[in-house]
Every structure is written in structure tokens, then in C-alpha cells.
Amino acid sequence: xxxxxxxxxxxxxxxxxxxxxxxxxxxxxxxxxxxxxxxxxxxxxxxxxxxxxxxxxxxxxxxxxxxxxxxxxxxxxxxxxxxxxxxxxxxxxxxxxxxxxxxxxxxxxxxxxxxxxxxxxxxxxxxxxxxxxxxxxxxxxxxxxxxxxxxxxxxxxxxxxxxxxxxxxxxxxxxxxxxxxxxxxxxxxxxxxxxx
Length: 196
Description:
Elements: H1 2-20, H2 26-42, H3 52-66, H4 69-77, H5 86-109, E1 115-124, E2 127-135, E3 141-151, E4 154-162, E5 165-166, H6 167-181, H7 184-195
Antiparallel strand pairs: 1-2, 2-3, 3-4, 4-5
Helix pairs in contact: 2-3, 4-5, 4-6, 5-7, 6-7
């Protein structure tokens, strides 16, 4: 009887963990997020143009569960981050998040039954890399690596490498060039124009 109770309790605990998406495995956590995104994209009730805003809102909520936008913003601003006040940092994170959402949600929305293969994960606490390949309808393979950082029980994405190009490094170079040739204010003004 005691063994049955322990087995039942263990199964219940595992079910609760799985149903909430809590896993110690970064690849599994990423897979849960990607599956949720694909589920939203496939929903027939979100296909019409008048549902576009709702679909983007739902996608944004799912993505924000897995992505650490503050860490991404900090890394993209690099050495210029230390010089910013708390208020400036909050504003920059907000603008950078909007920029990423606006740019990449459009690309995500173009999803049309591509296959995603989860190749491997490398864990070096508190960091991990999950290597994936997206296979398009034309059988073109696009390697996408996710760099993650452990935050309590969650693994949060802080960079995405698409075909060998780091998203964060790409923005870092652009932002640094603008700040050095003009000013931090100029960078913020440009971001505002793009996202607001």
C-alpha cells in the first residue's frame, strides 16, 4: 500500500511539473515554448486579419516566458549599459524588447509547417546551448542555436544564433557604432521611431 502511494504521488508530481512546463532540461523547456508558438500559429480562429493583434499578443506572452529581454538588452548595449541610470536601462529594455518583438514576430508568423529538429544541448551551468535545425518546405536546413541561462527552475534565452550570426552581437555592433558616432540619446531616438 505504501509503495502504491509513493508511486502515485511521484507520478502526480511529475504530471504537475510537466503540465506547467517546468523541466530542468533546457532543450525540453525550449521545445515546450516552440510547441506553444506553433499551436498559436496553427489556430484557425486566429487566421483572419482582424485577429492579427490578438495573435501577436498571445505569441508575445509565450515568447516572454522563455526569453530574458533584460539580459539580451544588457548584452546588446555591452559597455554602455554600465553608464546608464536605472530609468534609462528600463526604457532601453522596453524599446529593445519592442524592436525584437516587432522584427521577429513577423518572421515567426510566416511559419508554414517547417520542421524543427532538436539536435543537441550542451550544459555548462548556469549556461546552456540548444542546437536546432529548421528544415523549410524546400528542404533547406537553417541552423539555429539558442543560448540560455538558468534562472531558478527556468532556462531563459539570452541570445539566438541564426546560421552562425549572433542576434545580440549583431545589435551590439550597430548600437556601439551609433553611440560612438553620435550619442546614446540618438540611439534611443532611433529605437523609438522604429517601435512607436
